[in-house]
Structures are given as C-alpha cells and as structure tokens.
C-alpha cells in the first residue's frame, strides 16, 4: 500500500495546482484522474477548447463581414470546420501534455483511474481495465469538479440535443441553434456558432441574461449580442423536447403564464449551469453528506471528516477555474502548516464573447441592497482613442467606490479585451486601493487600458476624455 502525505482526487485546475504546490512544499503527493488526461473539464472540454473556437470564429467573422473591408482588406474566406476543430484539439493536447510535465517536474505521482474514498486515510483507484490500487493518505483532497446540469424533459444525447461538450464538437454549422440558458457557457458557445453562420436563439427562464452580473452591463451586453444577430426569448420556460434525425422540436411557454409554443432548430444546446460531481466518491465511508445541490460543505477547505479536504466546483463558491486554483494552493498551504487564504471578494468573472464582459467585486444592486453609499465612475469605449481606431467601440467601464473612503468596491466592464484588463482592478482591490489610486496612475497611450483610468477619474467627476 503506497503511502502519501496528500492524495488528490481530480486532475483539473484545482487538483493539479494543488499537486504542484504540494510538490513545491516537499510533500509526498499523488493525483488521481479518471479522464485519462489531466486538465479536467476546463482544459479538455471547457475553458480552453471554447476559447480556441471563440478566437477562430472571431477571425472568420471579421474576414467574412464588413470589418476587413472597412480596413481595406478584401478577402473571401472559406470555412474549413474540420480544420478549425483539429487546431482546437491540437491546442488542448499540447496543454494537457504540459500539465503532465509539471507533475513530473514537481515529483507528483500521476495515477490514471477513478478514485474513491474507502474509509479514513484510504483511497482506492480503479483503472480502466478494472485493476484496483490502494493508497494510504494522511490527507485527501476532493477536487472532482462539476458536470452539466440536466434539464427535466430535455434528454441530452449529444446528437441533436447537446451539452457544452457536444456543442464544442458539432459536425456541421447548424442552420439554426437554440441555446437554453443565457449564462456564460450558453452565450459563449452560442456566439461561436452565430459567427460561423447559425441562426441562434437564446431561451432564458429569467427576464434578463447573465444572472448575478451588474444589470446595466447585462442589458448593454444583450443589445450588443442582438446587434450581432442573436435573438432572445426571456422569461420563457422549456417544458419538453423531441429530437429527430433532422432536428429538435422544443416546447416553450411563458414563465408568467400563457400559451405554449414550439420552436424548431437543427440543434439544441442545454446550458443551464453545472452541478458538483460526487458520484462514486465513497463519501459515505467517511460520513460526508453533500447538500441537496450536491455541494460538499467546507470550513477553510476542511470537510466534516478529519483529514478530508475539498476545493473547486464541488464545494461552495463560483464555479471558476481560477477560484479552484486559488483554493488548491491555499488548501495545500494549510495542510503544510502555512497560512493559506483566498479572498473571495476579489475573484473576477469573465465572459469571453466579442466584446468581452469582465466583473469583480460588488454590483450596484448588491450595494443598494446592503445600504452602502457609493459613487460611480463610467467611461465609454466609444471615447477611447485605441478602441475607436480599432473599431471596437461597444461597451464601457464602470467603477463603484465607497462614497466616504473612496475604496474600490466593484468594477464592471463590457468591451474589447476587458477579460485581461480586469486584473488591474483585482490588484488595486487586493491592496484596498481607492479609485483615486487608479485615476492618478499613468497609463500608456494609446491603449484600451486608458478607459480604466478615465472611469476611475469619473468617480470624483474629473473624467478628461469624454
């Protein structure tokens, strides 16, 4: 029986970063992954392949539409979907091999198979051939991630009715695609296929898109997507779906009540969210019981079972790869006797459409509900010189700061490359920065990042370029 300081079940961003940190700190560590390759959902069928298709489809749309012509570039692009999918997979394969290299570099034992807990301090790994290996661990870290949430009445077959994994590998560009769910996954993948030529309709139960996002940003974002050709049915409930060899008939009715209608499409993408993955983990052998949503509770990453820890999508908090990474590092540092910590108030969220949406901290709605007095600074990308030159003028930057102390409480952006630029405000907020700190910091000209500074200036009413 192999003995370890730490055994990590799950090789996604949370798990493999935890393994790296454990190796760096001199702990004897093993990581277990049943998929056959490391990287988890994010790297294999989530974040990375979706970004590969987002990037490729953006370039195709720019070349096929009026954007290139306006720049004086005249081409007639031809879509090669097979090659687009191949380059996506090549990128994913290279990244998974890179993670495997990092395991070797940090002296992590990588064990392929499905791990389950069999009582305190014991993990059994079942390989594809059925062979089982028993590991003894002083500490067990559950990092098993999440899976797509199913929708009653809509059976996912990854043929005509697909989840996010299936939507990354459609064999053709649909003439029509219905996306159920107006969240991050649905809007990103919907935008990919819209740019490649599909008619995309988004059906959402709520009366708005992007629940939890700043309302002003969400409303502006919806208008931009509509301008790009995406249509929306909000406040609509899907009650059934019937797939055939040629398409899907979807039954939809108003949430507020009213007559049902049938929508027809070549494909339907179910993207109503994700749920923790805990099947076959043996949690009952150590007395752990997930809640009704499948979430494993934690107290500073500790579960109710001694020596068992939990990180990432399978526990509370936003289901984001970078949140899982931070938790993996903090969890291992606590195991090693250090002061591991995650600042949950400064975890950014990004929607990688074009333009992007990026947000960190509190929304206006949250501040109003909490009775916090705040000031707002806004700046439109239409007034930013680099964005104007690049014909990327949709969107704005909004900074929310405490009315008394000027401390930055939240930042919400819609615009070009804001997913990268939000990090500036994450750093400022980590240091308890004020809007004036950003407003007084020199930014290079001409760059899109100047919009961040101008918005900060706007908190005190001295925006200079709009």
* Shape, per Cα inertia axes: globular
Question: Given this structure, which CATH class of the largest domain is correct?
Answer: Alpha Beta
Q: Tell me the domain tally.
A: 3
- Number of helical elements: 14
Q: What is the alpha-carbon Rg in Å?
A: 23 Å
Q: Key terms for this structure?
A:
FAD/NAD(P)-binding domain, single chain, 466 residues, 3 domains, globular, alpha/beta, 5-stranded parallel sheet, Enolase-like, domain 1, 7-stranded mixed sheet
Structure report:
Strands 1, 2, 3, 4, 5, 6 and 17 form a seven-stranded mixed β-sheet that branches. A five-stranded parallel β-sheet has the order 8-15-9-10-11. A five-stranded antiparallel β-sheet has the order 18-19-22-21-20, sandwiched between helices. With 466 residues, it is α/β, with parallel strands linked by helices. A hairpin with a 6-residue loop joins strand 13 (248-254) and strand 14 (261-265). The protein is built from 14 helices and 22 strands. The model has no long low-confidence stretch (mean pLDDT 97). Helix content is 32%, strand content 26%. It is globular. The longest helix has 25 residues, at 81-105. It has helices spanning 13-24, 40-45, 47-64, 66-70, 81-105, 164-167, 184-195, 215-227, 321-335, 364-370, 385-389, 418-430, 435-439, 450-459; strands spanning 2-9, 29-33, 108-112, 114-117, 122-126, 132-142, 146-148, 161-162, 176-180, 199-204, 231-234, 236-243, 248-254, 261-265, 267-270, 274-276, 308-310, 349-351, 356-361, 374-380, 396-402, 408-415. The chain folds into three domains: 2-147 and 275-342, FAD/NAD(P)-binding domain; 161-272, 3-Layer(bba) Sandwich (FAD/NAD(P)-binding domain), CATH 3.50.50; 346-459, 2-Layer Sandwich (Enolase-like, domain 1).
